[in-house]
TrEMBL record:
Residue ranges occupied by any HU domain in the UniProt entry: 1-126
Keyword Acetylation: no
Residues in coiled coil: none
Name assigned to this protein: DNA-binding protein, histone-like, putative
Transmembrane segments: none
Sorted UniProt keywords: DNA-binding
Amino acid sequence: MSAKYRLVENPPASRKEGVTELHARIVASRTATMDDLAEEISTISSFSPGDIKGLLTSFSEVIIRRLKNGENVNLEDLGYYSVSLECPKGVTSDKQIRSASVRFKNVNFRCSAKMKDSLKTMTLERETSKKKQRFSPEQRIKHIQNYLQSNRTVTASQCCAFNQCSHFSTMSDLRALINAEKVEKLGYGKNVLYMLRQNTNDR
């Protein structure tokens, strides 16, 4: 099985002498969930999907606890986890800041060399060009809701892909869903996910 990619224009700031260069970007076919992983692992082991999902959940909880305790986590064949912090700007002396002002910023993940080497052999296939459809805001919002009915979360990039629209339009759609209390935002920065609000009826 091959992964698909498409060619995308580089940002204007990176253009040289008016020449627009392109870069390749993976077109994700879908987002694998923990249930998917548990089901697949069960086919190559003697454990049931439920046992595997329970193990993966516990595995995740242990990693989080270790990181909270100030440890780094080395998963060897997978990669290396660590936590980054943030504090107020303009600090020039340790006397200017209290511990309460230092807070969690992000989780850093550094992929292992073994995983990188394994992925170098991946088969790539260019996505067949399709005529871009234009959906109304109502249609785009409905597509997002339908996607979330089948998948736990969605990213802005995924919304852009299946709605074939700009990031600006996608963020407008997601804000409308958030303001209508149908969707909630999880995470910050590049790690933002969106999911259906629990116990909220469609209006």
